[in-house]
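Example 3.2
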Amino acid sequence: MSGLRSAWREPMVWLVVGLPAFAVVASFLLLSQALRGGPDDEVIDTVHHTAQMQVADLAPEAEAARLGLSATLLATDGALVVVPVSGPFDRGATLQLTLAHPANDDHDRREPLRPTGQGWEGAAIAIDANDWIIRLESADGRWRLRGRLPRGQHAVLLTPAQPAP
């Protein structure tokens, strides 16, 4: 009997016990990481769930396409400036500009833009740190334009998300 080795000294026992134990621990770590993460998609609109479908209201994009609206957002050192490119904008109305961070909605910003002689202007926002998803809409939400501003770029064309009917 003195010639028998302990079972824990056998490499095969470590493989039989150790590999499944490692897989269980790794699964729990992966699950905790997945549950801790926030939303990381680019949809910044309010989305309604109907049965198993996600439904977003695209009527403002359709209206912007029907009107033929487009604009350019310029990010200067002193301000955010929106200049109309095409379509019948109400030049006296205030607009809403949303700058959405693509991965962390805690960094999202909403800025009212006041009318100026050339377009609309809002407070300066530091934009160089990352990419931004841009949404420009009328104050009443009747139409909406979108664009993406990559890091380091200071201008973007804003257009409807869907083509005109």
